[in-house]
Amino acid sequence: MAQVAAIVLAAGASSRFGSPKQFIRLGGETLLERAVRVVSEAGLSPIYGVISNDFSHESVPYPMISVVNPQAIEGIASSIRCGIRAVENVAATLSGSIILACDQPAVTVEHLKQLALGGPEVLASAYAGRKGIPAYFPKEVLRKLLALRGDTGAREFLKAAKAIDLPAGELDIDTIEDLDRARKFYET
Q1: Pairwise CA distance, residues 64 & 116, whole Å
Q2: Domain coordinates of the chain in residue numbers?
Q3: What's this model's pTM, rounded to 2 decimal places?
Q4: CA distances in angstroms from 92 to 4, 5, 75, 121, listed in the order given
Q5: Along the 188 residues of the chain, how does pLDDT read in single tens digits?
Q6: Second-level CATH architecture of 4-186
């Protein structure tokens, strides 16, 4: 398998949750630690974590490389752009990159390994009747993501993509109720 980087999106304001959800504990680790661990165990490297200006650098889990997004208030598109710019520094050694959010506890090592086999095509995750992230973007497509704006992410790129089922992928932790549901599934 060719080298595939990871871009973990963790700069969100967590406005619906009410506090920084990146540091919410689930199963003995923070959501950000969980995402970085799963990505690392899947063999993705390097791992870039897009964080906001007010993020405490002492909270950065190894082996994540921090990428500060000074425009995080714009939404997910600005975080994707920051991550892509970081990946560009090593793009020659990559086949592509997987973009994922730190608040999707259903993401597994096996799922990321399947996405990493994407080859020359964009490969999305499928859940709740739609396509979304985590998604694999071949290096030839990455620069096109720099045109994204606002808080809609890469939806347009994923509409025509092939997709791999991600059971329970629709569960992302945006509210206390989401966290309660996740704890029922992912804590022992």
Answers
A1: 18
A2: 4-186
A3: 0.91
A4: 11, 11, 28, 17
A5: 579 999 999 987 555 555 567 888 888 899 999 999 999 999 999 999 999 887 766 677 889 999 999 998 888 999 999 999 999 988 888 999 999 999 999 999 999 999 999 889 999 999 999 999 999 999 999 999 999 998 878 988 899 999 999 999 998 887 778 788 888 877 65
A6: Alpha-Beta Complex (3.90)
Q: Residue 149 corresponds to which amino acid?
A: R
Distance CA 109, CA 56 (A): 27
In angstroms, rounded to a whole number, what is the distance separating the alpha carbons of residues 37 and 43?
Answer: 10
- Closest of 184, 163, 73 to residue 114, by C-alpha: 163
Task: Please check whether residue 6 is in contact with residue 97, taking contact to mean a CB–CB distance below 8 angstroms.
Answer: yes
